[in-house]
Amino acid sequence: MPSSQAASASALSGEELQLTDHLTGLGNARRFYDKVGRLIADRADDPAPFAIAILDLDGFKPINDLFGRSAGDEILQQVAMRLRAAMDDHSTVTRIGADEFAVLYPMVFSEESAEDHVRMLIEILSAPYDIGYRTARLSASAGCSLYYSEEETADLLVNKAETALYQAKRSGRGRVVVYTREMEEAAKRVTRIEQALRRAVAAGEVEPHFQPIVDLATRETIGFETLARWTDRDLGFVSPGVFIPIAEERGIIGQLSQLVLRKATEAARDWPEHLFLSFNLSPSQLVDHNTGLQVLSILERTGFSARRLEIEITETGLMTDPASAEKIVHELKSMGIRVSLDDFGTGQSSLGRLRDFPFDKLKIDRAFVSSILDDRPSEHIIRAILAMCEGLGMEVVAEGIEEEGQAARLVEFGCAGGQGYLFGKPCNAEDTSAFLRQNLRNMRTKPPLPHAMIR
After folding, report:
1. DSSP 3-state assignment of 289?
2. What's the burial of 22, exposed, middle or buried (CB within 10 Å: 0-12/13-18/19+)?
3. Which of 194, 350, 361, 418 has the smallest set of CB atoms within 10 Å of its CB?
């Protein structure tokens, strides 16, 4: 702490110290809640609006990790000075978290005005920071909420602002979002889905569906990818594009994943031995050091061979914590499980990750496959991926194949594996077993090749 801040801090009374952030000299979370509560009480008889904002620094942790704790503290002090200097006579800024600041605007009465005020703060915070002989840049995201009636409390206003902040951070860095009625309805729906999903996971009501993966040259099924499907008794069918992110965000994904993997391996245990089962791990599972043990426990419980299991991870999941992901990948491979990199080309990782991680397979994202027939750049990208994988000794599966022309072009380029609606949509365990029985009957009744074609 600079000497001037230390001197002023020592002069504070005991009560003031309890309300002060010792690093920045700003008020702390307790002071912020106290001021908001007092303002609500003052306006109880005439609830004139006011605004609060919560700002979260984007990219602070990497800077803290790169330059060190003392540099991180210096940046936080500079942030505090900039925010304090930007306050008018009525407004107050406090530090309420590690890299989170809250602002109270008693004289801001509309959503538009709140957004304008906070956008100015974000511009102020985006200027470079001096750290000794170096400079660093970061941005901030913000969520705002407005007080309108005596029914609202400080906790409720902060919860709304945090919901808006979450929306801002999902939209990208340097954004401002003001809490709206529509957002409130969306938040209520997310909460309803979350509660229903928790109940469904506890009751074992989420089911695995299986989509065929084929040998593109012969069109024979070589494996299946597991996809979670959920139909709730009240909500009806809920898209995995909706409930999977909610499970990830609300900390349910681990239980959900274990349930679906257990059911999937129980179903796949009776498939023909040559068929493999592919299963996706979420980004949060790649930072959970218990993931490998959980997978092994499920395999032991269901009796499914580890050598028939293939775990898919995405580039984004890989980059959440590369060191943790690498450890988990090595654990899985030591069990005999194969590991593939999913959605290649659309995430954040570099080509160097293919060298550092011992992937067995790479899956080409559907974004490239869907335009392979009419987009030259997509064609060249797919050719380059196939050549690279050949050099690295990795298998390849192209996802999202929906047309015969796409499949033919991929075979022409040398792609061995394929997946998509052209070969089959995801089906439940019962229908998948029926599909396999029909395939077996077709193989038994297929006429033998002419002698001249046998090599």
Report:
1. coil
2. middle
3. 350
